[in-house]
Amino acid sequence: MIELVASIHNICIEGINGKELRLDQFRGKKLMIVNVASECDFTPQYELLEELYRHHKDSIAIIGCPCNDFGGQEPGQEEEILSFCQTMFQVTFPLSKKINIRSKPVHPLYQWLTDKALNEVTDSEVTWNFQKYAISPKGELEHVFSPETSPLDDQILRWIEST
């Protein structure tokens, strides 16, 4: 059974390398959480996410969450996903192990991101790969950006640069 959590900073995810990734380490920093896939039309956004991360790593953390729930576009195992991301896009931001977003059991991170009762802001549906959730330094959900929104879109850059 998956336990519901009240704060995003209380959530731990398993990194793609098998090590625990505690979200409380990002307290005080903006956080963008993106569900990612290797065989999607939006896969080139990995390169833009990495550019965003490198240029703003003092003020934002990015976590990519591989998921196969949308069109079966992330069929690989963790080792394959990591190799693909590093080889094709030189990704250095953290990646989680593959998680469930639509299929059961939904990962606690995505329960929190999509359920107003938990995030206290809005209910949202993850519509496809590369949907972006913007979290404040205090752990509050601030924005949900569609998969079509480029990681370098002005809306995202303004959010990062805002205090």
TrEMBL record:
One of its GO terms (molecular function) is peroxidase activity. Signal peptide: none annotated. GO terms for biological process: response to oxidative stress. The keyword Oxidoreductase applies. The keyword Oxidoreductase applies. The active site is at C40. It comes from the Bacteria. Keywords: Oxidoreductase, Peroxidase. Pfam families: GSHPx. SUPFAM superfamilies: Thioredoxin-like. Belongs to the glutathione peroxidase family. This is Glutathione peroxidase. It comes from Candidatus Opimibacter skivensis.
